[in-house]
Amino acid sequence: MTRVSRWTWSGIAVVVVVSVGVLAQAQQQPLVDAAGEVRESAYDHLRRALAGEDRVYQDIDGPQLKGWLNDVVAISRQSRDDGNRYWGRISGTQYEVMTADWTEQHFRRLGLEDIHRVDFDLRPQWFPVDWELTASGGGQQLSFASANPATGSRSFPEGIEAEAVWVGLGTAADFAGRDVAGKAVIIQTILAPGQMGNSASWEGATIRAEEGGAALIVGVWGYGGNLAVWQSTNAFQMVRNDDGTSRYVNQRVGTPGFFMGFEDGRTLRDLVATGKPVTISGRIETETREGLVSPSVYGTLPGTTDETIYVMAHMDGYYDAALDNASGMAVMIGLAEHFAKVPLEQRRRSITFIGTAGHHVGSPNAPYLRDQGMLEKTALLLNCEHIAPTQFIAFNNELRLTNTVSPRRWWVHGSQQLLDITLDAYRTFGVTVIGEMDGRATGEMMSIDKDAPSVQLIRSPEHKHTDGDIPGLVPAAGLEAVARAFAKIIDGVNGLDLAALQAAPMRSSR
Ligand SMILES: [Zn+2]
Q: Region 191-200: what's the mean pLDDT?
């Protein structure tokens, strides 16, 4: 039932009351189950009856895709049950290797060829091992279940104790006239779609705290729920260039920090609001692990030419990482299964499926493909990432779930025909997207997105990298729609020669 508290106004302390309320309501809640999650059947309106040649995609089945997603999530939960506080399919851990094993088993089951791994050495990795954050004042003592160390925060097992100072959004106006030296600076950070988008980062609030000599930064995450997040205090700001264009600048902030969920932050804010002195005590113990390896898994369905299509999905993730990226992995396996049934003589191009390594620690697989010269005769790069998140609506101070899938960022690099094929497939299966094509929506494809014709669809929702990235927020109907659309794109691409797929500048550069 803690899952309920993650999404509603009610905090942990009243969870029993809330649970009873939710259960009592369940009879009158046709779209929501007893756990407070929207039922799979509530998304049925997203499913399309297949007509004509699209009936070939009937075998790509949402509930089956969802089953694979759940298999991948189970690996994360094992890491939690093994006692890791920093849990999930964390890169460099045995749980990432188990995810690679799972992927390889499916590749073998489907009869893919040239199944092999490419391992990447990771630079020394930051691992938080144990931590604690409390506040006390006016005879009250608070602890914060959702508090996590800021990603990359330095280790201070001896602890820091500092006077709390609330700076609101932490803009220059909030800091004006405030002395934060040696203090624990609490910043309310507002989310934008995408985990990089939070106001403490883009407003430079954490930089101000550091420049003011703060001893500790405490970020309060978001506008509802009580999500525990892995997020750094670094500032990621848009800077205007002289010519009117803009660029993003990432500035490192070294002051140790925590993030906590909105509900926990509200109790802390209320304590500060009493006007009595509030002391914050924090302790973070981290390890730097060296010599770690992150695996990628390859498997190929041969075709009848020497041209290739790559379908990739990253394997690592935080917490359940149901959307990010069990959803992409499930869709990749669904595509492998679908095309494995197509007779070899009908497969124009080979399709190489890749479970990729270490996305959250640098995505080494993308430059590897380029460096190995593997993109030369590539008809399509298709990245499966953050496929189908439930849209939620901020309603006053609640995060309310809906029965629709959030529109996604998207990107096509290639010819007008490739663009037409892609948008036709999205239209056919009801895959919603943000209006503007977004050249930064490259995800795991990273810098190779223009080395070959490429298609990308991704949504990084507000609960990315939090304990709210759960299977209940990735509907089967949404997975099915995207997997079928991707299959249709691959078939469309195989109806065209390489030159007809490539973007004009690529052709002229040859
Ligand atoms: Zn991802």
A: 78
